[in-house]
Structure formats: C-alpha cells, structure tokens
C-alpha cells in the first residue's frame, strides 16, 4: 500500500468549528475552538477501492449514516492546534485501517518453558500445602 501520510487529503476534508466544553476561562463562551473533521470515504478520489472497503469495515463505528468519517478534537484552547490534531488523528486512523496485519503462525511452547511452568506450579502447590494445619489425630 502507498503511504497514507504522503497523500494530500486537505481538499477532501471538511472542517467545522464550534464552542468547546471544559476549561478555558473567559474565552470558553465566545471562542469556537472545538474542531470537527469530516471525510466522505466513498467519494474519496485519493483512496483505492480496496482501501475504501478496509476503512468502511474497520472504522464502521466512526462513520455516520451519511458515510462521513468523523474526528473531533477539543483538547487545546486554540482552534488551529485542534485542527492540526484532527488531521494527525485522521491520518493515523487511516494508516491503521489500511495496514494489513501479519498472519500469525501457530507455535508450540518450548520444552524448557513448559518445564519452568510446571516447576513453578509444583513450588506453589508445596508452599500452599505447607500452610495447612496438620494436627495430631
């Protein structure tokens, strides 16, 4: 797959700013610092059909009914910083969704690891059996 970070998604991204909740002092009621990034997956010209399918499958919980992938940032007090954070998170989400996971090859535990595990279990059992009260009957 081609590097997602190298592509210029700016022309396909839509941004919307609104008032953010949380701390902010006097600015909190008058500055629109919360940024919402929206990206229409199916209409994208920069993603291949295979990549679109992967994104739609893996990020289904972040895609709304209209087909937009949404990322919201409101941690910073600056709208500009929140916008940059949104773009970073968006690219990271796409990168994670489009990378293929390596097939896991099943392996057996080594003899020494099995031996160590069983020895540990024996020591633990012995320790617990020594704690029990053995009265003279």
Automatic annotation (TrEMBL):
Q: Which PROSITE patterns match?
A: RF_PROK_I
Matching InterPro entries: Pep_chain_release_fac_I
The record's top EC class is hydrolase
UniProt keyword terms in alphabetical order: Hydrolase
The region called Disordered is annotated at 98-137
Q: What is its EC number?
A: 3.1.1.29
Question: Where do the Prokaryotic-type class I peptide chain release factors domain residues begin and end?
Answer: 19-35
Q: Identify the SUPFAM superfamilies for this entry.
A: Peptidyl-tRNA hydrolase domain-like
Q: Which GO terms describe its molecular function?
A: peptidyl-tRNA hydrolase activity
- A Pfam family matched by this chain, by name? RF-1
Q: Could you tell me which PANTHER family the record lists for this protein?
A: PEPTIDYL-TRNA HYDROLASE ARFB
Please report the name of this protein according to its UniProt entry.
Answer: Alternative ribosome rescue aminoacyl-tRNA hydrolase ArfB
Species this chain originates from? Pontibacter rugosus
Q: Which gene encodes it?
A: arfB
